[in-house]
Amino acid sequence: MNYHQQFQEVNRLLEQTRQWWQFAAFHDRQSRWKQISPQLDKRLNQARLGYEDFNREQLSVLQQLLDELIPQLNKLKELTKLPKSDDYLEAPDSHWQYQIAGRKWSQIKHFAAHVPKHKNLLEWCAGKGHLGRLVASQGAQSLISVEWQQALCEKNHSLNLRLDIDKNYCPSCVLERDVLSEKWTEEYPLSHYALALHACGDLHTHLVKLVAEKQTEGICLAPCCYNLIKKEYYQPLSWQAKKSDLQLSRLDLSLPLRQLVTAGEREQREQKQERLWRIAFDCWQRNKRNIDQYMPLPTIPKKILKGSFSDFILWAATEKSIDVSSSVLVDETLMQAQKRLPVITQMEWVQFQFQRAIEVWLLLDQVLFLEANGYMCDLFEFCEKSLTPRNLMLRADKRSC
Ligand SMILES: C[S@@+](CC[C@H](N)C(=O)[O-])C[C@H]1O[C@@H](n2cnc3c(N)ncnc32)[C@H](O)[C@@H]1O
After folding, report:
1. What's the pLDDT tens digit per position in 287-337?
2. How far, CA to CA in Å, does 315 sit from each of 146, 224, 299, 309, 324?
3. Among 60, 117, 201, 390, who pairs with 228 as Cys (CB 3.0-4.6 Å)?
4. Which pTM value belongs to this model?
5. What residue ranges define each of the domains in the chain, with the CATH number in brackets?
């Protein structure tokens, strides 16, 4: 099956199953499964999915039921299983791992193994430039890192000096640029092979478009945060995706990201509390305003999350210009949230089964666009999911005429 056929099939199955994944679980007060499948709703509640006493051994039984209810699910899982690579690149010595967390370094080593040698390299949204340096150590012709944060650029430059990249490997330079700016688009070096590890939404689609437009040598890309886009909806690149009935909102684009594979115990506890508080605010604001409508909150500052629940409500109400003159019924509000939590979890559990399919749909769109523009593409898992849930890589190399 080629990428065109794979995309058409994934797209068809996602279109058919929209009612199971294209919705905002936070917005519904009642589980939507009550209407769509009372049988599923009953079984999820009997198994107590989303409650503290849920026994994970029940998952396989629930999964079986779901596979029967949504026959497209297994087909989607089969279709979106991608080749896995175990390859990784070792650094010349242990100094290279200076100031990098272990898991990040492993991701970088796995990513680096797929970059062709002897290229002029351009590291896109480079952060401190660890990836570019490692690839450069294997015989690149030159290395440019682009990043817009001055502090990261300075760090990158000092790490290049520390390892004496220019003397030992190849000429290097760090450019402080906004990669989305027109100025940079004009400046973009045509002879370079691009590397982008975990470039978010618009940042990676912009790069894919630039590579195709400028017909550069190629790209190794592992995208992340698909939802970080300026427009309200994803703007497909390929003609195939442009013809699709699927319109992916920012919320849909956040679906592949909503998982906790790499979170530690403390992080999980914090996320659980934040989730409960967000739902509690929603219960509170619906009562207070007497409008049964969800109200999103911006990112909650860490300081607020570490404080008391009442202070959080005060902060959230101020953010949303809601009057908090009367006192907040803390226990009652938290109890309402505790009740809604399993309802949301049960809806999300089904929705999450489509995460990979949506992610693969997005990447296939980019693959098809690059193929149509003269590139040979490969889509695969460059590392284990336990190292990063964003473990998909698109490698595209300009076809020789
Ligand atoms: C998720 S980090 C990835 C960094 C690095 N590639 C890595 O994997 O460690 C995204 C990087 O993109 C940079 N960035 C975000 N928007 C940018 C822009 N418009 N222009 C240049 N860099 C940008 C951020 O400062 C950040 O360093």
Report:
1. 889 999 999 899 999 999 999 999 999 999 999 999 887 777 888 899 999
2. 37, 30, 12, 10, 10
3. 201
4. 0.92
5. 18-79+260-353 (no CATH), 94-256+355-398 (3.40.50.150)
